Amino acid sequence: MTHFWNAHTFDAMFHLPQVVSVGEKILRPIFVYMFLVLLLRVFGKRELAQLNPFDLVVLLSLANTVQNAIIGDDTSVIGGMIGAFSLCAFNYVVVRFLFKHRRLDQLLEGTPTLLIEDGKICPKGLAKEMLNEIELTTMAHRQGFAGLDEIESCVLEPGGTFFIQGKKPRGPERRHHEISGKIDDLSKQVNELRKLLLEQVS
User: Fold this and answer.
1) What is the reported pTM?
2) Which domains does the chain have, with CATH numbers?
3) CA Rg value for the chain
4) Helices (DSSP H) in the chain: which residue ranges?
């Protein structure tokens, strides 16, 4: 019966194979990082927003596809830690650099896309982000809106998030106000009829 833990197991986990050097382990994640940032910039924001199952599949497949490109044939714990550290460190440097250079940040991340303005859908914005009204309606439902008619403005941010400003008042509230107004009108009419009847009786 083999032991659950022995010296060979420990050595296999933390021994760095000589096939890939430490320098290459650091450079691989950086190159993959830059490629993915460029790829997502070219193909737009919808993948980040994950509007449908296809977008989610793309992101999951990307992660699986570039895995070997990041760590190579190294399956050791140390190799994975070096790759993860390289990704985090390079991302930290990039974020700090872009924080101080806002124009370059806008160039890399892109600009917000207006999808709904003044309660009206912007066809050019939808076409730019390859969105249709069904997907936009689904997104509105996720954020608590019954439909697009309750939205005053909608912007798709570079990071894939939707900034929505609803109409004031919203649908149910508008209907409540409309019903209240009709009730008030009926009450006034009833009061006027009562006055007329009282005048006729007297």
Assistant:
1) 0.58
2) 7-109 (no CATH), 113-166 (3.30.240.20)
3) 30
4) 7-14, 22-42, 46-49, 53-65, 67-71, 77-100, 102-109, 123-128, 133-142, 171-201
